[in-house]
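Before the break, one more example. Copy the sequence into your notebook; we will annotate it together after we see the structure.
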Amino acid sequence: MGLSQDLLDCNDLRTKEVEVPQWDTTLTIQELGLQEHMQAFGSIKPDDDGNVTLDYLDIAQTVAFGVVDEKGERVFSDEDVPKLARKNQKALMLLYTAITSLPISVEDEVKN
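Here is what the structure looks like once it is written out:
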């Protein structure tokens, strides 16, 4: 097995536990890979003033991509996104913010 296979096989997406009080649970979130990132944000373009507006489905899709189980598999499918978008907005925004805040800062990485 060569270096390329080693790199392709390594799990380089960071995870973090996030307490979601609105759902009375703690969930694992994972940083988005390039494919998921582009699916979630690739079509979003700033307006003439530089502002970006996210659709509620964009937020729910990001949460669906980023919430994983103990094996690193997605908890929510693409088919779950419309129903997920109707869940508690504080819970969704908490998860969305946490997912899009990964990766952690270089300073935090150096400490670990």
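The beta strands are 15-20, 25-30, 67-68. Residues 44 and 55 are 10 Å apart (CA to CA). Try to locate both features in your own notes.
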